[in-house]
Each structure stands twice: as C-alpha cells, then as structure tokens.
Amino acid sequence: MSPGDSDHKDDKLDGFLIGRLLSFREPLKRLRDEVGTLHLPYHSKRAATLVGDLIGVVSEEVGVTSQDIPDLRTPADKSRRSRSLHYSLEQFVNFVETIVLASKDVPVSFLQLVEMIEAELPEGWRFGFLVRNYPELGTLDMNAYLSKLLEPFVNACRFLENEHSCRVFLVPPSILTDPLNWPLISHEIAHVLELTQLHVVQKVHGPSPKSSDPQDAAMVKYRHSEEYQADLIAAILFGPSFVMRVLSIYFSQEIRLSTSHPAWEQRLKALLEVGLPRLRDGDVYKNLIGDSLKGISLEGGIVTHDVVNLPTVLDKTFEVIKDRLNQFDCQSLGLKAARERLGRFLPYTEDYKVLLNAAVLNESEAMSAYASSKLGPPERAAREYRYLVADCVRLCYVNMHYDRRIAIDGAAQEAQDELDG
User: Fold this and answer.
1) Residue 4: per-residue pLDDT
2) How far apart are CA 76 and CA 67, in angstroms?
3) Which residues are paired to 183 by β-bridges?
4) SS3 content of the chain, % helix, strand, coil (to 5)
5) 208 φ/ψ angles, rounded to the nearest 5 degrees
6) Residue 170 contacts residue 136 (beta carbons within 8 Å)
7) pTM
8) How far apart are CA 138 and CA 132, in angstroms?
9) Is the pLDDT assigned to residue 404 strictly greater than 70?
10) Structural contact between residues 233 and 317, judged by C-beta atoms closer than 8 angstroms
11) Where are the domains of the chain?
C-alpha cells in the first residue's frame, strides 16, 4: 500500500469522526431553543438559562474540538478521543431532555413553593434550581454534575466554574402529586444550606470522609449528622407539617432510605428528644403533632443518634442560622385563622407556610366539612382538598410578587417625591 492510500484512509476516518461530532450541533441548537421557551418561575428560569447558555458554549466548542482530531497520531487515538466526546455529548443531551425540558411537567405550584422558600433566605444563600421526578428524594449539584458529564470540553467546564451554583431536586411522585407532602422538600433545601453556607458538620467532625464504604464508622457519623441536622432545619422552616408528613409516609414503600441515612425511628426520636426542645415553642410543637405520634414505635434502628454528638451539631447549627432563618410560629394568630378556614374547606392565601401547616393539621376537619356541606361526591374529597391547597400555594406566590411590586413602586414614588421636593 502506498503512502498516498494511507493518507486517504486517514482523511476518510477524520472526516467520518468529525462529521459525527458536528452532527450534534443541530440537536443542540434545537434544545437551546426549547430551553429558551420554557415558562418557569424566576429561580427555576435562572437554572434553565444557565443550561441554555451552556448549550451555546458546548456547541461552539464541538466545532473547535472536532478539528483537533486530525492532529492525533494514530487511528486508535482518534477513535478513542471521538468516543469520549461523543459519549459526553450524548449524556449532556440526555440531561437536558430528561431534567431541564421535563421541568415543564412538574406542578408549577411546587416550583413556586421552592422559590418562595428560597426568597426568604438571606440573599447570598439563594440558588437557582430545577426539579426532576425521581424515585428517591435527593439533591444534585447541577454545576458539578454537568462538569463531570462535559469533562472533555474544557471551555464548558470553565464556564460552569464561573457561574452561580444551581441545584436539581430529585422528588418522588408521592411528594410532587400531593401538596400536603410538599413541606418535605425543606429537608433537601437544608442539605443545600449546609453544603454551601453552614458547614457545621464539617466543623464538628472534620472534612467529609473519602471512604466508599457506607458502613465506615466515620462515614456513618458524618452522613447521619447531616440527616439529623437537615430534619431540624426543615422542622424550623416548616413547623409541625414537616414532622407530620414524615410520619404519613413512615411505612411507604416508595420513600426508601439509603444506608447513609439513619432509620426513620431514630430520626423522629432525635427530633423529639434533642431537636424540638431547642425551639422557641417546642412544647406547643410537640402538642400539635401528638396525635400523629400515637401508635408509632421509636425503638427501631441499629445506629442511634448518640453516636454523632448531636447536641453539639444542633447547637452550632442554631448559632449560624440565628437571625438568618425564621422559626415557624406555632402560636401565631395567622395559623389559627388559616386552620379555621381550611377546616371549613375554604382558601387561605396569606402565607404559604401557615397555609401548609393548617392544611396538614386540619385535613380531617376539611374532609368532614366537604361531606357535611355536600360540596361533591365523597370519593373526590381528598383530591379536591389537594387541588384547593395547590391553588392556595399559587395564590401565595402571586401575592408575594404583588407585594414586591407595590413595595418597589412605593420606593420609586418616594424617591421621585424627594427629587420633586
């Protein structure tokens, strides 16, 4: 075979590999257009916008990177490099299709709820987010995950490093489809706060262990501390509704615990014995959840909360969140008013946390009101109640933005009056 034949074969291979990579540019353009048309709440839109901009960076880098293939020495090296880039692009496209574009199928009221929670955080603690329907409740660092997927693309990884961190919340259908379970997302938000702002567990136990063995003693202590802490922060943010909905899914086969988590029994026991007594109105809190605890044994679990130095973890957590996170007020007049309205199957739209607590606490009264007032067929009562709660969450979101608009307009008018004066 002459040298010219060899060069010809190399040219054909180069053309094939480059063409295969460049073929991704059209679907990437389509995906970017689709992401740009998504109608999402502001903080979800921020995460989607990041992905849209990233698609543009990747598409441009595909053109540059593919041209490097002819410079590689052997056909094997060229094929290996092409496979790496191709696989990375396939995984990225799959992420956009299954997570970003699928966000449009997540209940909008749920996305609005997460945004309202985030809006109450200190400004530097806020984050963009997306939500994925997923069998297990969890959280994904979107920037880090995408950097791993796009590792062969240097410019894309550099772009992600310089962008504000966003999260993907993985949420089971039993939570997404039931507004009464929505307070459970606060546990995942608590994890985000620990990883990005609090760093309490690290201060108490040192850096996160690197062991891949989930039964490693240091790993168990670290991970269990994170779970107990997240439960407490969720209980602070969402009041009795969080604990009551944990109890409601206690025997669920869908909500599973991985080996990195303490047993449900130990988590509830830790909250009751160590967490709630530290709250401002812990006794009132316990009284409100008392009926839900009847018949529940808290003696399960092999590893108890004693192994994690829990009092220290929680005390240091309180030190950091003091004056930054508002404790739910179990004795507020607003909660009393909301419970009275929800108990009569009437809407309440003043405060989303008060709303959800009233909805959970007074569900049975609402069912009775639905039946006694003959609002519809008995078999539809539970479903209609959840429609009512979801609509009230949406209206709380509308009110939040309306109040902001009024405040902005008022400040602008005041500034104008000062200039005119």
Assistant:
1) 45
2) 16
3) none
4) 70, 5, 25
5) -60, 130
6) yes
7) 0.90
8) 10
9) no
10) yes
11) 188-331, 334-420
